[in-house]
Write a structure and sequence with these properties.
The complex is a heterodimer. Chain A contains 11 helices and 10 strands. Chain A is α/β, with parallel strands linked by helices. Chain B has a single domain, classed as ABC transporter involved in vitamin B12 uptake, BtuC. The chains are: A alpha/beta, B mainly alpha.
Amino acid sequence: MAEPLLSVDRVSCRFGGLLAVNAASFTVAAGRITGLIGPNGAGKTTLFAIISGFQRPSSGTVRYRGEIVTGLPPYELARRGIARTFQIVQPFTGLSVLENILVGAHLRHRTRSDALAAADLVGREVGLADLLDRPADTLTVAGRKRLELARALATEPQLLLLDEVLAGLNPTEIHEIAPIIRRLCERGISILMIEHVMQAVMSLSQHVFVLAEGCIIAEGTPAQVAADRTVVEAYLGHGAAKKLGVALG
Amino acid sequence: MRGLAPIAVVVAVLAAVPLVVQSNTTLNFLVVTLLIALAGQGWNILGGYGGQYSFGHAAFFGTGAYATAILQVRYGMNAWLAFGAGIVLGAAVGAVIGAWTFRAGIKGSYFALVSLAFAEVLRILASVAPITGAGVGTLVKLDLRVEALQFESRAVFYWVILALVAISLLVAQRLERTRFGTWLIAVRENEDAAKALGVNATQVKLGAMVISAAITAAAGCFYTQYFLFVDSGIAFGTRMSIEALLTPIIGGAGTVFGPLLGALVVQALGEGAKLVAGDAPGLSLIVYGCVLILVIAFAPRGLIGLIDTARRRVTPPAKREATHG
């Protein structure tokens, strides 16, 4: 296989006595949707913060297109083509939806008119066409999630890190947003998504890594991972796999 | 070119005032008001657009004021050059303070306190250092020639400060329409989100600090040329820091005309209070305090925000629907 777009190599992150991420290693291949799943408190968000430059790891390296990018500031990573969304949406509440997207679009477009045109396109792509002039704080949760996605997309990334963009949405809303994510991948943007909504991540991802207690405990296709004994135990507790042994085969 | 028309209209109207008003007292009042508006516009760039609430803009005002005075009196520099040098030095002080505080990640109320501390340090230094004239202050010789940047007519002084205010309005208007300004506003709204979108927040804040300091320093330079005297309390005292932040907050922080409107209202109320109650010490501060409480309670977006809301209420609902698509 060709060199991975992103490779995380034995990354650890310690907060005082808590080892949030413990020598986690995984890779994201170009042109695919990669899922990162795991129970609450597994260290997914910390790992995301490290990849996107918001948190320095205690040890380990992150490589992007072969270059070491560990510890680079977030804006530098964004310039190199890594964009992220936030689990807790962070809209610029005082601005309109279009102006929110404009901030991201300015990364690649210096003049206001170019950036506005680019922002408008991205807004339409994620289904915010009718809401572009609205103040960002009037959006629904689903709208805000789309806005998070739009802003990150406006930076024209090669790698998009999605932190629980589907969490908190109802099934209908998930059905609306999932195809958008799939289309982005078809357009050539590689995606790494953290997700709690199991069904969605399993249907969207081509490859899945499972993080539990800071360690990567399994990887594979969604089907392989779902059948993995250690994964089931990580979610449901020790002994669970045995009790479910019949079902898993 | 959009957005320039209101500035042109406001400046043209203000420029016509001395043709109608001959009273020196009134002109003096307007000059001081514009001076405060200029200092406030400086604060507005960093505080209003950038969300970094400085409590020590006197540091820049004072640097401009002292530099203009000292360079003329002690080094025999031409007044115009000294004026320019004062602006550059003010910007430099802004760059130094900004580099220290923003690189160290100082934000919010901590930034307010640290900026106040810088201004106070400068005030104390200026009150003892021989070069500033220590406690006595520095007096600039009366020399009513254009070359000395002094004018017999108050109207000319008025037009000079109005020109500076006009430039500061244009700077604020540009901010609303450029990448730098968009990034600055993004940092104000949510610094982490801005960083994730490729904004080098430290650099953007530093840039805003330099522009902000230069504008407030220009107000200080003008002060020296107009009053021909500066001491440590005038230059670096907290009073100037407070006026520089009050006027934009009352007028509407993060708006082009906020500081100008705020300065007009605050100064008019201050003068009005004087007429009613005589020249009691500290009276204007009481007026500022009351206006500030009222604005924060009833118009958190300042007077401009209040006007904006009122205008929207007047707009018929049908039309509003249409604009929202």
